[in-house]
Amino acid sequence: MGLAVAVWGGFALWKAFDIRQPTAYRPMGPRVFPVIISCSLIAVGVLFVIETWRRADAGVEAHVAGELQTADHKQAALVVALLVAYAAVFERVGYIVATTVFLPAVAHVLGSRRLLRDVVVAVILSVVAFTVFTKLLSIDLPEGVMSGVTP
Amino acid sequence: MIAIVAVISELLDGFGTALQPKYLLYCAVGVLLGTAVGVLPGIGPALTIALLLPVTYDVEATGAFIMFAGIYYGGMYGGSTTSILLNTPGEAASVVTSLEGFQMAKRGRGGPALATAAIGSFVAGTLGTLIITFVGPAASRVVKLFQPADYFALMVLAFTSVGALVGRSALRGMISLTLGLFVGLIGFDEINGQARYVFGETHLQGGISVVLLAVGLFAVGETLYVASHHDTDADQIVPVRGKLWLSGDDLRRSWKPWLRGTALGFPLGMLPTGGAEVPTFLSYGLEKRLSKHRDEFGQGAIEGVAGPEAANNAAFAGVLVPLLTLALPTSATAAIMLTAFQRYGIQPGPSLFTQQAPLLWALIASMYVGNVMLVVLNLPLVRLWVKLLEIPKALLYSAILVFACLGVFSAARSTYDLYLMIGVGTLGYLMRMFDIPVAPMIVGLMLGPVMEAQLSRALSISQGDPSVFVTRPASVVILALAVLAVAAPHLPRLVRLMRGEDAGTRLVLGEADAD
Q1: pLDDT tens per residue, chain A (151 residues)?
Q2: Of A28, A84, A104, the CB nearest to B455
Q3: What does the pLDDT look like over B367-381, one tens digit per residue?
């Protein structure tokens, strides 16, 4: 807990010393507000460390500690990995194909064990979304490998 | 007197617009969609409007806002259904409803619980709209007198009260808000046109949009949270039993809580306290104290459903007042609606009531219509909404992710934003882990740049003299309130310390939120 907040405060501190040259004379340059906010970030970060350390809010602390214990972070990381992969192949493979693979994969991580149903839903969802976006809303989605095949 | 007549005539014009078939349709789509997302866990009005923004390019402003407002108050309504039947609130503002509502459903009184929520929402929504109708124009005249220094003071007040009132820990609210302010710095600054915190990335120069932040925090963060918990199998839905109507006794016990809920919800929604959660907690506490059936609380007291449900709908109406007259969003959904206004080139603020009168009055009129629609459509449709709850969670959340990616991609047409969204989502997950609320971050992102601009303007007018903030009476009063907002929860402890006694626990709102 303290570690996360320390990173927090350190990040803010680094930001505060990020240099930007002030431009022509004005009562307030572009630097003033970032400095104020960076200092606030450091302040709340430090306060957070102190509050955690002093266990000021026992109820919330216990809740957070329990949450960190019971939560399965590997599962969450897996979903993040799937999202990154989805974003990476999105344009090359095309919307429909990428989604058809992505949706059942996430559903599987989330505990679904009915692959066929999930794939069917994914196909329907992606084809409908693709058609609505490209035809009705004229927002282009990547066609990818399906180019020429898509309606 | 003349003012009231003018208001009524403008309102009638508004009805003339809102009752056109086209706008009735937008309104119906809005309230139905709102109810649906309110019912579904994991997706709320803020996320829905954020995702709809990119696809509403072609919809004209009036239609879009009638729909967005419908989604907002429809969502408030839909959240109650999930709370009552499933004990998992669809929205933060419905958490309290589940305390008594679920108990009522378990005891076979689900019907009356849903009915008092629906009718209470209707009463509060209609009364709230009525207050906007008459208070809105007056408020905008007062606000016209505000100067930059006053605006800046007002935002300080907004921030401190968000920090003080949201969630169980004030500090956690402030952390979220400050992070939001920081994100608001990214990109070209509005005054000098200087790029800040872009790290040489051209993609970041335009800043991070509210849509991206909201989608990342709400959709991605929430899905990650669900993924990390293994309770993904279906929850037990309590079937709706009991007539979907109120008996004479229920009605007698409900009407006062409705009115008291409205009285709490509207002003608190208007104050920058972060939306509808706080008034629902207060209303629950109040009803519990006033009830003649105090022994029933915890076992399904109808007052505990009627009051909070009225409060959250009235709060929505209250939220609209500062949003429309001051361009000051007090909830995440309001922040996204503000972006929507700006997308149409409309700047909410004191001149909105004069410059955009037709749009505004059509919007207000549509809210009367929408509230009627909700109560007429939703009670008969309740079984349909329950069906929605049978969608398997795993599938629902995967679909939410797919729509999140779709929304962010179509808004920016770049995969870079998808990566950003994933990053924001991971942050949202961590915040959730440490019990830090995410909504203040979104409000912070919207307010940061405005706050900087007002500060800069105030200092330009005073030629760099910071005393403007303490010499204008309005600024001083508002800043004093801000100090009070920070100090208030600590007052009992301070008093005790001064008396030389042991410092006890401080006042915390939302203590009932313990899960």
Answers
A1: 445 655 666 665 665 565 455 554 455 566 677 777 777 777 777 777 777 776 656 666 666 776 676 777 888 888 888 888 888 888 778 788 888 888 888 888 887 778 888 888 888 888 888 877 777 776 777 776 665 555 5
A2: A28
A3: 899 889 888 877 778
Inform me whether the C-beta atom of residue B227 falls under 8 Å from chain A C-beta atoms.
yes
A77 with A139, same domain? yes
In a domain, residue A95? The reply is: yes
Domain interval for residue B290 = 2-471
Q: Which of residues 398-457 of B touch A (CB under 8 A)?
A: 398-399, 401-403, 405-406, 409-410, 413, 415, 418-419, 422, 425-426, 429-430, 433-435, 448, 451-452, 455-456
Q: What is the pTM of this model?
A: 0.80
Residues of A in contact with B402 (CB under 8 A): 99, 102-103, 122, 125-126, 129
Q: A11 at the B interface (CB within 8 A)? A: no
Verify that A66 and A78 share a domain, yes or no.
no
Q: Which residues of B touch A70 (CB under 8 A)?
A: 229
CA distance A139 to chain B (A): 7
Regarding whether A66 and A79 lie in a shared domain, the answer is no
SS3 content of chain A, % helix, strand, coil (to 5): 75, 0, 25
Count Cβ atoms within 10 A of the Cβ of residue B170 and give its class: 0-12 exposed, 13-18 middle, 19 or more buried.
buried
Cα–Cα distance, B475 to A4 (Å, whole number): 37
Spatial distance between the Cα atoms of B136 and B321, rounded to a whole number of angstroms: 6
Q: Nearest-CA distance from A149 to chain B in Å?
A: 21
Task: Please tell me which residue of chain B has the smallest CA distance to A79.
Answer: B224
Which domain covers residue A141, as residue numbers?
A: 73-146
Q: List beta partners, residue B382.
A: none
Is B413 a member of any domain? Answer: yes
The pLDDT tens digits of the residues spanning B247-292 come to 778 888 888 888 888 888 888 877 665 566 777 888 888 888 887 7
Closest approach of B237 to chain A, Cα-based (Å) = 19
Gap from A81 CA to chain B (nearest CA, Å):
9
Q: Is B273 helix (H, G, I), strand (E, B) or coil?
A: coil
Q: H or E stretch including B195?
A: strand B195-196
A115 contact B CB<8A: no
CA–CA distance, B494 with B515 (Å, rounded to integer): 29
Asked if the ipTM is above 0.85, the reply is no
| Last residue within a domain, chosen from A70, A93, A108 | A70
Give CA–CA dist A20/A32, Å, rounded. Answer: 10
For chain B, how many structural domains are there in total? 1
| Inter-chain CB proximity B435 and A129 less than 8 Å | no
List chain B residues with CB under 8 Å of A88. 415
Residue A151 located in a structural domain: no
Rounded distance between C-alpha atoms, residue B275 and residue B178, angstroms: 18
Could you tell me if A48 and A85 lie in one domain?
A: no
In a domain, B479, yes or no: no
Residue B500 domain-assigned (yes or no): no
